[in-house]
């Protein structure tokens, strides 16, 4: 995810099921760097001493200048909790203080300050069936859920609906095929033949199941739109968890 995250649920006590958030910083060594369209970059880090993770959590990355100035941003984790490396998808923003450095400067072998995993609200337990709905880079924490479902032998427990303008700008597009995955592109036909257009109820309704938990992640506008769609389709508000974010560089 790009920028500082904010989690909220349409109903239910905020922070219910919260986990203990680490307060100390650890050293993350960059093991892989993969550049993507639009300046986005995938970083895979080996973080010394990081505890167990859950799908949906994020970490905080802090940069430190020689004069002691620091800047930090939160990024959702895309990797499966069973993956020993922490994978981050960083969308580079114009004049982005942290994203620009991570996207343009960081190389394999560099060290970053990392704190986490953080977050106990927007997490999937790996057991309850889930519908995950993400817009743009909002799919990143949902990819962690999808990967976890696959690695535990239950790929049908998560259906991921991803919305973006074009396939090129959709993170992890190559993993969002097959099964019950849906790609909704607003400016071009999707690989499965869906006509261009905004995410609508018809994209979600066939995937709804009794007892399902729904996760929605994206910009404030997308999160409001998508969460309204699922609630209007009859999903109890208490079963919908929403994470919103905005650009912060």
Automatic annotation (TrEMBL):
Signal peptide: none annotated. Pfam families: FAD_binding_6 (PF00970), NAD_binding_1 (PF00175). Its cofactor is FAD. Coiled coil: none annotated. It comes from the Bacteria. Residues 1-22 are annotated as: Disordered. The keyword Magnesium does not apply. InterPro entries: Cbr1-like_FAD-bd_dom (IPR008333), FAD-bd_FR_type (IPR017927), FNR_nucleotide-bd (IPR039261), MRET (IPR050415), OxRdtase_FAD/NAD-bd (IPR001433), Riboflavin_synthase-like_b-brl (IPR017938). Keywords: 2Fe-2S, Iron, Iron-sulfur, Metal-binding. Residues 23-124 form the FAD-binding FR-type domain. The keyword Iron-sulfur applies. This is FAD-binding oxidoreductase.
